[in-house]
Design brief:
Layout: H1 3-23, H2 33-43, H3 47-65, H4 70-81, H5 83-86, H6 88-92, H7 96-121, H8 129-138, H9 140-176
Length: 177
């Protein structure tokens, strides 16, 4: 099968997973969006195409869920596309540790970026260091769910990919034996 057809098929599957992961009942922030971004960055040849996976997932699911503060939404979208760039490390060395580090890095970047945006634009917190700290402290339960979700979904995607690769290698070995 042509490489572009494989990438388009993977794109559609990852977007479907991202949309379903946001629309079906789940714990807050326990979604596959960052993991699909990390995986698409690893799998796809072009960064711009890979970044469209989380972007499309968010746009489609937000069309159903509704929108909120556009300044915060913009930061959310950027933070969820950032794991595509983190996956450059995975292309050099794919291992459980690098996938885990990519998932943790994705969660950390999302936490820092989005909560800074909430502090800056929501008016919910005082514009001071103590207000910023209060914002991050209030968001800690969401960080836990993001970490768990990003680790789980990254493990599922990269684990499934490893199983597919192992099955292919076994089939080729049997066919040439």
């Amino acid at each position: 099968m042509k490489a572009w057809m494989t990438e388009v098929g993977m794109f559609l599957m990852l977007v479907a997973l991202g949309v379903a992961g946001r629309l079906l009942p789940h714990e807050p922030n326990f979604t596959p969006i960052a993991a699909t971004a990390l995986f698409s960055g690893y799998f796809m040849r072009h960064v711009s195409f890979a970044a469209c996976v989380p972007l499309a997932s968010m746009l489609i699911s937000d069309a159903v869920l509704g929108v909120y503060d556009y300044k915060v939404m913009g930061v959310v979208y950027l933070c969820l596309m950032a794991p595509v760039l983190l996956s450059a490390v995975l292309k050099r060395r794919l291992a459980v540790t690098t996938v885990g580090a990519g998932a943790v890095g994705s969660s950390a970047l999302f936490f820092v970026g989005t909560n800074f945006a909430v502090w800056l634009s929501s008016g919910m917190y005082e514009y001071s260091l103590s207000g910023l700290v209060s914002c991050y402290v209030a968001a800690l339960p969401f960080l836990r769910n993001s970490l768990l979700g990003d680790l789980f979904w990254s493990g599922m995607l990269f684990g499934a990919w490893a199983l597919v690769g192992s099955a292919r290698r076994s089939a080729v070995a049997r066919a040439t034996a």
